[in-house]
Design goal:
- By secondary structure, the chain is an alpha+beta fold.
- It has 2 domains: 196 residues, no CATH class; 77 residues.
- It is 45% helix and 17% strand.
- The chain is built from 14 helices and 12 strands.
- The strands form 3 sheets. Strands 4, 5, 6, 7, 8, 9 and 10 form a 7-stranded mixed sheet that branches. It has a 3-stranded antiparallel sheet with strand order 1-2-3, with no helix packed on it. Strands 11-12 form a two-stranded antiparallel ribbon.
- Strand 2 and strand 3 form a beta hairpin.
- Helix 1 packs antiparallel against helix 3, helix 10 runs antiparallel to helix 11 and helix 10 crosses helix 13.
- Pfam families: NTP_transf_8.
- This is Nucleotidyltransferase-like domain-containing protein.
- InterPro entries: NTP_transf_8, NTP_transf_8_dom.
Length: 364
């Protein structure tokens, strides 16, 4: 697997900082004021801005425990935008650096959602559009066939959506600003709520959330107050995927600051969800992509000395119980290629040695 030159990895880090600065400036203008608020025993930052009629509007900023947010609160009046410089950096990273730009539709949609506040409200980009970001995060070139997509998947934790006391603009308006043909997709349960939206060419945007633990919720769309009128489908295993996400940049236009799953968790999660898919039609195609992406990440994480990250995530999944263990074993025994089985064994063995975890073979 070919690595990306350190010069371009450094440039990506700088672009990420510049994109965060620009987004911060747009979301939190100098005439507003930050307020620290305790909600259900947890401290959060909110931002109050004059509403033009003598009152104020309040926006959610983030956890008071996040050191990056704390630093930005401290220095927010010093921020400035530099769009042209950022656009040149994106061009260099994709044309010369070997990193991946999303297709135009995916990029425009994520840009619109980001501008609406999705990632400020702790939304997480998952699926193949997130996978595209791992080239830069891991510093390796990813195969083009593994990054093609016709959809965008967005996750948000159920509790967070109910606690932030803020929301996106109407989600249909955000999507139709990109493509007027976007429409809500009727939910399979017959509910009037929609968790997915599709345009005339079949591009689909879907919202997902963590399963609340009861089977009665799994086929019903969950109400998500922070998602601008969209509901979300509860999904088993999603809480594992979206725990401890990472900030990075989607290389579209002048760069879009996004939040994606940790790549080690993404790889383990792909193994599990592949076993839940049907074996016919589009499900079979998606399952094949799940396995391909997992195998690519085994190799990338091993070669970039992140075996311990994978081993920790794999061990966490294994310890979640028999259903998780059965899925991991099924993926290894009947879905991975020969090379994939070898790569999985190698990264688990190396990772377990690094973290001092005995019984590596027991987890396979």
């Amino acid at each position: 697997m070919k690595k990306i030159d350190l010069v371009y990895q450094t440039m990506l880090a700088e672009l990420g900082q510049r994109c965060m600065d620009a987004a911060w400036t747009a979301d939190f203008p100098p005439d507003g004021r930050f307020q620290r608020v305790v909600v259900k025993g947890k401290a959060y930052w909110y931002f109050d801005v004059p509403d033009g009629s003598g009152g104020k509007a309040r926006r959610y900023v983030g956890s008071a425990d996040d050191p990056e947010i704390a630093q930005r609160v401290k220095t927010h009046q010093q921020q400035k935008d530099d769009l042209l410089t950022r656009r040149r950096m994106v061009s260099s990273l994709t044309r010369e650096g070997g990193m991946i730009a999303p297709d135009t539709m995916s990029g425009n949609l994520v840009e619109a959602l980001a501008a609406g506040g999705l990632f400020r409200l702790r939304g997480i980009l998952i699926g193949t559009v997130a996978f595209q970001c791992y080239a830069g995060l891991l510093g390796v070139r990813l195969p083009a066939a593994a990054v093609l997509t016709g959809d965008a998947d967005i996750a948000q934790d159920y509790a967070i959506s109910h606690e932030v006391e803020d929301t996106l603009p109407p989600i249909v308006d955000l999507l139709q600003h990109v493509d007027p043909s976007f429409r809500p997709v009727p939910h399979r349960s017959g509910s009037a709520a929609s968790s997915a939206f599709q345009n005339a060419t079949g591009y689909r945007v879907e919202f997902l959330t963590s399963n609340r633990g009861s089977g009665e919720y799994i086929d019903q769309p969950a109400k998500m107050p922070a998602l601008g009128g969209a509901s979300a489908d509860p999904l088993r295993f999603l809480d594992f995927l979206i725990r401890d996400p990472m900030r990075t940049v989607l290389l579209h236009k002048s760069g879009v600051p996004v939040t994606v799953p940790d790549p080690a968790r993404y790889a383990v999660h792909k193994l599990i969800v592949a076993t839940r898919r049907r074996t016919d039609g589009m499900s079979a195609i998606k399952r094949e992509k799940d396995i391909r992406q997992a195998e690519i990440l085994f190799e990338a994480l091993y070669e970039t000395r992140r075996s311990s990250d994978f081993a920790i995530s794999y061990d966490e999944a294994w310890k979640r119980g028999p259903a998780w263990q059965a899925a991991l074993q099924q993926a290894r025994r009947s879905m991975l290629s020969k090379a994939g089985v070898s790569a999985l064994s190698q990264i688990i063995r190396q990772g377990n040695q690094e973290i001092g975890l005995e019984g590596a073979e027991d987890h396979q």
